[in-house]
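Re: that backbone. Tokens:
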């Protein structure tokens, strides 16, 4: 017969194993404030990608949350790319890091929330060559020549995925 302390030890081990498989996000944050139906809200801005993640609850049972990436400005020059997490196959096995998890509860339905997971894949950051004075110098001509030859360095990647958790309300 199993004793109670053995059952609790097994449950504790099982929960510790489940937590170990879920990656911890780089940014820790509390749940967002509940959002009303039809009101657009900014989830997060990614300045490197010149993008703002935006969402709104629709009130439609078939697709309860609308999620999109919006360009922050026409003159912004992105230093990173924003991709769809499913197409990029973002996971820790592929070298991606879970950067952020944003949970947005619905004000109209307290059992439902939108969860946005943002993944980050750092670029292979090679140290720049130093000149005789010990400084890293960037020359426009060299950069243009490298771009023309298709030899630009890797850029950081971000990927975002939205899911709905919880039961819908009528």
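Recovered sequence:
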């Amino acid at each position: 017969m199993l004793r109670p302390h053995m059952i609790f030890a097994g449950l504790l081990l099982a929960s510790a194993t489940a937590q170990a498989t879920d990656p911890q996000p780089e940014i820790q944050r509390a749940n967002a404030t509940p959002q009303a139906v039809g009101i657009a809200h900014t989830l997060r801005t990614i300045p490197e990608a010149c993008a703002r993640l935006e969402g709104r609850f629709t009130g439609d049972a078939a697709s309860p949350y609308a999620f999109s990436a919006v360009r922050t400005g026409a003159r912004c020059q992105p230093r990173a790319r924003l991709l769809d997490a499913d197409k990029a196959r973002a996971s820790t096995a592929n070298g991606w890091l879970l950067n952020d998890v944003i949970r947005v509860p619905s004000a109209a339905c307290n059992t439902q929330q939108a969860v946005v997971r943002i993944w980050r894949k750092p670029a292979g950051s090679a140290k720049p060559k130093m000149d005789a004075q010990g400084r890293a110098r960037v020359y426009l001509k060299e950069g243009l020549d490298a771009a023309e030859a298709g030899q630009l360095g890797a850029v950081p990647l971000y990927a975002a995925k939205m899911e709905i958790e919880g039961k819908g309300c009528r």
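Helices lie at 4-21, 85-88, 140-148. The chain is about 20% helix and 30% strand.
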